């Protein structure tokens, strides 16, 4: 019997290893699986490469993981904001590496990773510093930059509801990077508010099919996630 529900946050992140590439869902604080991230801090994995929309907010969630010195490199679209002082300080001190990727490009690189593609050409960033060292090509009179896929060892994702097969439904802005990150990771770990029985989810409303999900942990009343 397929049952991807597990009992605790600690069990959910237990096998995330040092040096892993971890894809973290969320658009700012919206849909970020903050309880899973704090469980990862307690677990102790180090030298992580993290892929996220930004570089953390305030001093919880991803910012807390960075502050704890666990992140070697971050790949994101928005590293600097008024509430990202943890990353700003760590970067100034040379304690974390940064790869900045335009938001549409990071989403498509994740999609390419999940779809098994070798990369794609995009006009975004052509002629800028972000295109330095990358292959460029003119196609039908327009200039493009070649971008490689992003794949992760693990993805940490937040959803609203899940059944034991791993089918996911999101709540509004939770549905941001979760679907493509679930596809692009070898192991997808999901924090949800509600477990439901098989058949309760309308098949037409399932966003992430269970084939892309490995473990699900319920946090019914998250104190930190939104």
How would you describe what is shown here?
This protein has 226 residues and is α/β, with parallel strands linked by helices. Helix content is 21%, strand content 27%. It has 6 helices and 12 strands. It has helices spanning 9-12, 34-43, 62-67, 85-92, 103-115, 178-184; strands at 5-6, 21-24, 48-51, 71-76, 97-100, 120-122, 136-139, 142-147, 152-162, 168-169, 185-195, 215-218. The strands form 2 sheets. Strands 1, 2, 3, 4, 5, 9, 10, 11 and 12 form a 9-stranded mixed β-sheet that branches. Helix 2 (34-43) links the parallel strand 2 (21-24) and strand 3 (48-51). Helix 5 packs across helix 6 (178-184). The radius of gyration is 18 Å and the shape is globular. The model has no long low-confidence stretch (mean pLDDT 94).
Oligomeric category: single chain
Globally, the shape reads: globular
Largest sheet: 9 strands, mixed
Residue share in helix: 10-25%
């Amino acid at each position: 019997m397929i049952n991807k529900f597990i009992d605790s946050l600690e069990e959910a992140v237990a096998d995330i290893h040092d040096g892993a590439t971890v894809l973290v869902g969320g658009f700012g604080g919206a849909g970020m699986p903050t309880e899973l991230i704090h469980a990862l801090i307690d677990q102790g994995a180090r030298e992580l490469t993290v892929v996220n929309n930004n570089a953390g907010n305030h001093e919880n969630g991803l910012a807390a993981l960075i502050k704890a010195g666990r992140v070697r490199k971050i790949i994101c679209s928005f590293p600097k904001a008024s509430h990202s002082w943890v990353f700003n300080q760590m970067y100034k001190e040379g304690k974390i590496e940064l790869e900045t990727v335009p938001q549409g490009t990071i989403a498509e690189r994740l999609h390419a990773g999940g779809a098994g593609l070798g990369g794609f050409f995009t006009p975004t960033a052509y002629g800028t510093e972000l295109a330095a060292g990358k292959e460029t090509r003119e196609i039908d009179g327009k200039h493009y930059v070649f971008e490689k896929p992003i794949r992760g060892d693990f993805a940490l994702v937040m959803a609203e509801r899940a059944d034991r097969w791993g089918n996911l439904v999101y709540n509004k802005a939770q549905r941001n990077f979760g679907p493509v990150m679930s596809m692009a990771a070898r192991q997808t770990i999901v924090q949800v508010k509600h477990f439901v029985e098989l058949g309760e989810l309308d098949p037409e409303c399932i966003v992430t099919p269970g084939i892309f999900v490995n473990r699900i942990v319920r946090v019914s009343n998250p104190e930190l996630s939104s």
